[in-house]
Amino acid sequence: MKRIVTAAVLLSVCAACGRESSSGSRYGFVTVLGNDTVAVERITRTADRLVSDDVDRWPSVKVRHTEMMLAPDGKITHVDMEVHTPNGATPKARERHVTADLTADSVKISIRDSSGVKDTAFATGGAITVPHVSMMYSVIEQEIAAALMRASSAHLAPGDSVQFRQWYPDRDIGESFVLHQGFVRPSPGGKVELWHDWLSGVADVVVDTNRQMLSYSGARSTYKVAVTRVAVGDVPDIDTFGAKLAAAEKAAGGIKQLSVRDTARGTVGAATISVDYGRPLARGRELLGKVIEYDYVWRTGANAATQFTTTASITLAGIPLAAGTYTLWTAPHANGVVDLIVNKETGQWGTDYDSAHDLATKPLLTETVTKPVEEFTISVVPGDPHHASLVLEWGNFRWSAPIVVK
């Protein structure tokens, strides 16, 4: 049986445990999604202090300056974070100042913005506790290093996990503000699995013998990013990079999801059909077998589950559907077969697939296109008054299902 370590843990900072010089170490992380750089971070760390400057677009552009004070044992004792959202719609959305004080078994958090100050506190039970920002990898590195120290001192068996706790500085304090949790599972050879309760799947991390994070892969999670540790001289200029991202965001009409939401519509006989779905970009990535894993159910888009609505009775890929709303899922296989799954549950997030609600599964027609499609696209393509096709295109694949009005 796998153990989970939840006892009191002294937070250690990668190489900070007796290895940092008085001048500290300087380095950074660069995060890419396919061929797009979505975050950069510049870090200075000494034995008693960590300073991070980072910019990311996930989904909105944010610029942060963070200072963390560390005890002699490496434990975080204080966090001071300035968050700037250049294209925020209001002063409250644009500027936020977050502070936190941590003891052995609690964290007190204060968030200041134009509306005032909000405070909260959590008991941590002695667990590793850190602030969490999705694309801020200095802290992710830190929580992993702390967990590895704990795993080593506790002589954990292979497969055992270490728990950590985290709060989100980018979120409001209120009834929905909670202390989240995750687990670090070390493996031989400097490999680590990282799981958070907000992330479907696991991240794969490689560390060196000093517990410094060398790389991070989200290929097995819903965050498909790849992160690389770089020398400080190889970190893109934070100000220039942030200004470029902010200008592009503003030119595109303001803050938007990385995968925009869209609706495909069509009329077939007496049936009006609409498909509400997220539209991820290919970004130079290999899609089938990589972004869309073989033999796994895919949300058929991004973010929330794909919703299919018909106002009259039809058949879709030979599946009888009464008027109403359903969710569509797909499962490609290495042999080229792609299954269409029609599910009766609606309104769920795209990682919350429940086969207990499946109505039916049928194969899709599959083709390879010569001109790649960058943005995932669903279309209702008309035929005659009683027939149409539901067409799904992305990269080099084209999947389709016949629609027949009864």
User: How many beta-strand runs?
Assistant: 26
What is the number of helical segments per DSSP (H or I, 4+ residues)?
Answer: 3
Radius of gyration: 24 Å
**Could you tell me how far the N terminus lies from the C terminus, measured between alpha carbons in angstroms?**
54 Å
Question: What's the multimeric state?
Answer: single chain
List the helices and strands in order.
EEEEEEHEEEEHEEEEEEHEEEEEEEEEE
What is the share of helical residues?
under 10%
Beta percentage is: over 45%
Give your account of this protein's structure.
- The chain is mainly beta and 406 residues long.
- Helix content is 9%, strand content 50%.
- The strands form three sheets. It has a 16-stranded mixed β-sheet that branches. A six-stranded antiparallel β-sheet has the order 17-18-19-22-23-24, with no helix packed on it.
- Strand 14 (203-207) and strand 15 (213-217) form a beta hairpin.
- The protein starts with a strand and ends with a strand.
